[in-house]
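A note from the maintainers: we've had questions about how concatenated examples are separated. There is no special marker in the raw files; a new sequence line simply starts the next protein. For clarity in this README we add a label.
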Amino acid sequence: MKIRRNNMVLIICIVVFSSCRVENLFYFDINTQTICSCGKKVFYNIDIVNDSINPDGCQYEGGILLVWNDTINPPPNNINIDSIPDKYDIYRGGYNSHKKFRLKPNSTYTLSDNGLGGVEFRIKVWTNSNGRVIKTTQLNCDSANNLDTRIYDSKKL
């Protein structure tokens, strides 16, 4: 009886831990300026950090967090960076900002998502003088799945 109960606990633990694994893979489509999910994953929140620094060594801008605020409808699995859906709250430096989101020119950003309890996944993107993404570390789901470390440049695509 005790062995059967131990086996049952072991099976429950395996099922729970394996079901909690969430794939958070995503990539950035340079042509459409869109953060794209790999698979059925949706974006409840995206953390966007400008890695660039000013000549004085200070951070160029505070971190930005996009948080889905609709409890009825699911979040999208693709987010066009030029037109963030209205159902996302945009937090800048921890404060809710009602301004439209724009990437800064000539900057490097780290975009990360940990989903709902999944393993955090990060990509880097680089912007040109107009704030358009021109380079990324993840160009498609194949590069994200392989954790490819190449930098994809829009001029070479």
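[label: protein 2]
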Amino acid sequence: MGKGADLTLVAVSSDRLLHVVMTSAKIKKPEELKGKKVGSDRYGSLSDLALREALRYNKLSPDKDVAVIQSGGVPERLGALRAGAVDGAILTGDSRLQAEKLGYHVIIDLNELPIYFPSAGIVVTRSFLRNNRDTTKRFLKGWLEGIRIAKTDRDFTIKVLRRYLKTEDQEILGRTYEMYKNVHEKVPYPGLKGVTFALERLATTSPEVAKLRAEDFVDREIISELESEGFIREIYGEKPNR
């Protein structure tokens, strides 16, 4: 089955992407990206794969119709856009909001497209899960409590965002919180849709991937246990099922 199939996804926040492609107001429609340069992360990264899918969806061929430029992380991509080194960039989170304040606009919103990749998932090897099941379960409990805080405690979450985003811009902090608070599923079962989509796309360049099934990479058992045991209801202060 291949070494990669030893990996298993035990939880995932979402299969949807909050990435957007942003440009100056001079470019008004996706088709106007033809002949232009768009800043992306390193080749093969989530941002790069997502950008290429978004271009294909809009009938644009990556590296042929549109030059995909490795421009670094999100802050570096925004910097390349501001400097005019690229005509557009794939951005997400607070960088999207910063770009909007600078006058750039969204030309492709990936959340509105039928493009799915497992986002912010928890992945372990099957051997680790087999030998350290209790450790994995306790880790997921902590992760679930973190999701609960992010969804319900705005003030604390904004303090954390301020620290890691390194900004005091209250508008950006508030909008970033609103953008992300509902991304994480309350019961974050790893689904098959995102894994299936990713495998299908990888198979176009690596034919051996076509032999793999999404089911080979997903284990829903621990999240199911935590839900049936009442842990998730408990951390949200909900009454147990009768």
